[in-house]
Write a structure and sequence with these properties.
This is Patatin. Its EC number is 3.1.1.-. One of its GO terms (molecular function) is hydrolase activity. InterPro entries: Acyl_Trfase/lysoPLipase (IPR016035), PNPLA_dom (IPR002641). It is a single chain. The protein has 442 residues and is an alpha/beta fold. It has one domain: Cytosolic phospholipase A2 catalytic domain (3-Layer(aba) Sandwich), CATH 3.40.1090. The chain contains 17 helices and ten strands. Helix 13 links the parallel strand 7 and strand 8. The relative contact order is 0.17.
């Protein structure tokens, strides 16, 4: 037994040694952000690595902490207002519990993934402003979505109007809005790893805009205004958006990210687990804290489903979101309940207060607030969903407490949870970019 114990300890030390050299590789070959707290922790880790003995390898491994992932669905029944309100509540909670009145969402998450309006929210909250902080607070992002909802989500034209109103003119308001908001900022100007999907009609495959890929080569770097146009381009009302990378080499014909992945949670988890350069100690879902934000489920008449093409697109996206939630819930079934939190309407409110087709912003704000206050819904293994006693607001409060604990733990940790990289000298791609990004280069 003693011999077996020695073998196990040696094996674990060898793994730890490999990970130490992985960090060294990131620093001296690929570079990482020296201003990041986790990067500072990695220096402390390397300087104190001599203190690690076979007897405390497991405790050292546990001290690597958890990677915090934020995922935001496409529009849903509330045109993104439910997710935006949830983020505003969460940021308020973080400021209250941390005692920092200037706390922001980007400071408490390591990765963000957003689709459609979720991608727009991700861009607003994680793009670096002139002062080095995020361009928008969560409350400001909520106000942005509320005030510009009609510009981002154009109502589908019909009949003679559709023939006269060309997609390009229909999309111009959104393009001007995003140009004014983001200016010349690109994916490289985001504070943390960002994943924003769209669907490329040229390759007929998902395309994921990724900060990691942008740092690898200019052929994967896009202006944030173009990223937002691409992920929110409604295929029915405005048609595809043709965009190019900043060096002009990569061209895509993009439509709404909800076509590809209305719920980007699975893509974000896969990216983190496969990106050992930035997340060297993340091995499985137990090393993650994931917050997934839905946007309410639309109410359709099941007896006489008189759906427009846009309605079919929306219900397909919402169905795909539920499938992703079910799969992710299954992956986290053996983890603590706080490792994966999903905020979504349980359907009761939309059934009772279904907004009319010409739903107003005040209607959506009221419905979204009610959705947050209602009892939460959770997916069960092979059993659909169940309504639990805890509310969505309670879930946000508890999750806020967990990510604050992780933030405090990192201040004294010897292992870096995240090692953010700078531009790499070699043209490699990360796990986020699909084959479509290669085949669509020109």
């Amino acid at each position: 037994m003693a011999a077996l114990s020695n073998i196990d300890s040696t094996f674990e030390v060898d793994k730890l040694t490999y990970e130490i050299f992985s960090i060294l590789e990131n620093k001296f070959l690929f570079g990482y952000d020296d201003d990041d707290d986790d990067s500072k922790n990695s220096k402390s880790f390397l300087s104190n690595s001599a203190q690690i003995s076979p007897g405390n390898v497991k405790s050292v491994k546990q001290s690597a902490g958890k990677v915090r992932i934020l995922c935001i669905d496409g529009s849903g029944a509330t045109d993104g207002i439910l997710a935006a309100k949830a983020l505003a509540h969460l940021e308020s909670c973080l400021r209250r519990k941390s005692g920092n009145p200037n706390a922001h969402i980007a400071g408490y998450f390591d990765v963000v993934a957003g689709s459609g309006v979720g991608g727009v929210l991700a861009a607003l909250l994680f793009t670096r402003g002139r002062d080095g902080f995020p361009m928008f607070s969560a409350e400001e992002a909520l106000r942005f979505v509320v005030e510009n909802r009609r510009k981002i989500f154009r109502s589908p034209a019909s009949g003679i109007i559709r023939r006269v109103l060309r997609p390009s003119s229909s999309a111009s308001k959104a393009e001007k809005l995003f140009r004014k908001t983001f200016g010349e900022s690109t994916l490289k100007d985001t504070l943390k790893p960002v994943l924003i999907p769209c669907y490329d009609l040229v390759t007929r495959a998902p395309f994921v805009f990724s900060r990691a890929d942008a740092l690898e080569m200019d052929g994967y770097d896009f202006k944030m205004r173009d990223v937002c146009v691409a992920t929110s381009a409604d295929p029915v009302s405005v048609g595809p958006a043709e965009i190019r990378s900043i060096d002009g080499r990569t061209k895509i014909m993009a439509v709404d990210g909800g076509i590809a992945m209305n719920n980007p949670t699975a893509a974000a988890i896969t990216h983190v687990l496969n990106n050992k350069h930035e997340f060297p100690f993340c091995n499985d879902v137990s090393d993650l804290l994931v917050l997934s934000l839905g946007n309410g489920e639309s109410e359709f008449n099941a007896v006489k489903p008189n759906l427009s093409p846009a309605g079919f697109v929306r219900i397909a996206g919402e169905g795909a979101s539920d499938m992703v939630d079910q799969a992710v819930s299954m992956a986290f079934v053996e983890c603590s309940a706080g490792n994966y939190v999903r905020i979504q309407s349980n359907g009761i409110i939309m059934a009772k207060r279904a907004a009319p087709p010409s739903k107003t912003t005040s209607d959506l704000l009221s419905v979204s607030e009610d959705m947050l206050a209602q009892k939460s819904v959770e997916s069960l293994l092979f059993q659909g969903k169940k309504v639990v006693e805890i509310t969505n607001l309670d879930k946000l409060e508890m999750f806020g407490g967990e990510i604050i604990k992780e933030q405090e733990r990192r201040k004294t940790a010897i292992l870096p949870t995240v090692v953010l990289k700078n531009a790499s000298p070699s043209p490699r791609t990360s796990s986020a970019t699909t084959l479509s990004s290669l085949s669509s280069s020109c």
